[in-house]
Design goal:
Length: 307
Amino acid sequence: MTRIGFIGLGNMGGPMAANLAKAGHAVQVFDLVPDNLTRAIAAGCVAAGDAWEAVSGCELVISMLPAGDHVRGLWLGESAGERGGQDLLAALPAGALVIDSSTIDVASARRVGEAARARGIRFIDAPVSGGVAGAAAGTLTFIVGGEAADFEAAKPILALMGQNLFHAGALGAGQIAKMCNNMLLAIHMAGTAEALALGVKEGLDPSVLSTIMGKSSGNNWSLEHYNPWPGVMENVPASRGYQGGFMTKLMVKDLGLAMALAEHAHSAVPLGALARNLFNLHASQGLGELDFSSILGLYLDKAPGEK
């Protein structure tokens, strides 16, 4: 049994922490949202009063936060808090391993990792893919940047939350690979929604059209595993009012990170830029809290899920 600190219990972090507790580990958790803590306690975790208490006595800590500002604020103390803005790295012993599974900008990941290394603390950036369903089922993909030895040390814990574990390269490489993945995800989700809307407007049944495209050259992950049309596929956000998935506003954030990366690399990303504009437009209509597959609504003459 390993004592694990876990900070950030949202749609993804909550199920991840629950799987660690289910595997028999002592998981000390903290989140700013009381309901998230309540669910974690029900799953077998131990609630802490703050982040410092959550990492107390832990040699392995996982963070799952919304953005780079939050990660820097937590680990580097860039925002003043109840501990006077002191960085959380100071609470960890030398040799401790930090796994940050947030999807953030590369510069923030490297900055925190370098600060950790200066203190003798191991750090890997390990963003995930697989959605809320994957987090609950323990089938996530972890995309890791950092030292190979630190990746190997983390694998037994990562394997309790995911099925596919990849070492992408040096510190920050996990974030780069994740941005490329999510940009492609946005492109094929927008395209899938567009194609389905066209067919349905011309009288086709969305289930029939999905089956045809799924067995043809237009098949893709969004169509096969995350269909955006309500009622076509069970256990996806589209069939539960676009709730409980990957929020549109987070996709907009990730696409913004991809655009910044493209600018840094002087790389042309015309389809990625278009996808960002589409999802940003969708979010601006007050739909940012809905799952990103609700982009279907842009192609229809009604709100997503509306009959």
